[in-house]
Design a protein that fits this description.
about 120 residues, 5 helices
Length: about 120
């Protein structure tokens, strides 16, 4: 039996919480599904025509506008949050994922990393 100093913080567990597991599941889905559709689009013989046809649909434009606005809000939140000061590499990874795969991949990864920081360091908002 080991005695702990009462002034020292309790040890943190490295096991993932149920919410962190959900974030990782959503990260996996949010990465693989868009990549699948990106590959399908790139395999089309006339990529330019496919994009033009897609953007003529008002419903598609609704989703494009929604994702663009959500991305701007997400980036504003990234700029405001303080938990990235010690982990600039994660910030770069999230931005690269946001630009290459999309918000469906970047947001769950950000929430997972933020949750881990909150649990381990207790310093993220």
């Amino acid at each position: 039996m080991t005695l702990q100093n009462p002034a020292s913080p309790p040890p943190t567990s490295t096991a993932k919480t149920p919410l962190e597991k959900a974030y990782m599941l959503l990260f996996g889905l949010g990465t693989t599904l868009p990549i699948y559709y990106i590959v399908q689009c790139l395999l089309q013989p006339s990529l330019g025509d496919t994009l033009v046809e897609a953007l003529h649909n008002p419903v598609t434009l609704l989703f494009v506008a929604d994702v663009l606005i959500s991305t701007v809000v997400f980036w504003a939140y990234l700029a405001e949050t303080r938990c990235w000061t010690a982990s600039f590499g994660w910030l770069v990874a999230v931005i690269v994922l946001n630009l290459s795969v999309g918000l469906s991949s970047a947001l769950p990864l950000f929430l997972y990393v933020r949750s881990r920081h909150q649990r381990q360091a207790q310093q993220c908002p």
